[in-house]
Design brief:
Length: 111
């Protein structure tokens, strides 16, 4: 069957537009996956690293609460829920004093 030239050109334009949209969708999906992968890599490179000095942090647990402790700059990272539980049980002072004793014992051993 014969189609007029303008109808054939119109069909070609519609076909190009369709494939352009499909390619755009695929490209957007690939870019989204790459962005998520980069975000995951970024997170994993900072995992268990101190936000103050960048050194490795140690996972510790005292009085039923877990936290990350930097032996370099002595910073402490704790979930708010653990902090609330400790403060409600009035055990926060015990954890702080235990950390200070631990810190002082390390200083005496290295000296």
């Amino acid at each position: 069957m014969f189609k007029p030239e303008y109808v054939a050109q119109h069909d070609t334009m519609l076909e190009r537009e369709y494939f352009y949209k499909k390619d755009r969708e695929l490209i957007d999906k690939i870019k989204e996956k790459e962005a998520l992968k980069l975000l995951d890599q970024e997170r994993s490179s900072h995992q268990n690293k101190c936000s103050m000095c960048g050194h490795e942090m140690e996972q510790k647990s005292m009085e039923g609460a877990s936290f990350l402790y930097c032996s370099e700059c002595k910073s402490l990272h704790m979930a708010v829920q653990d902090l609330d539980n400790l403060s409600l049980r009035h055990k926060l002072r015990n954890v702080v004093s235990d950390l200070l004793i631990h810190q002082n014992s390390k200083v005496k051993k290295s000296a």
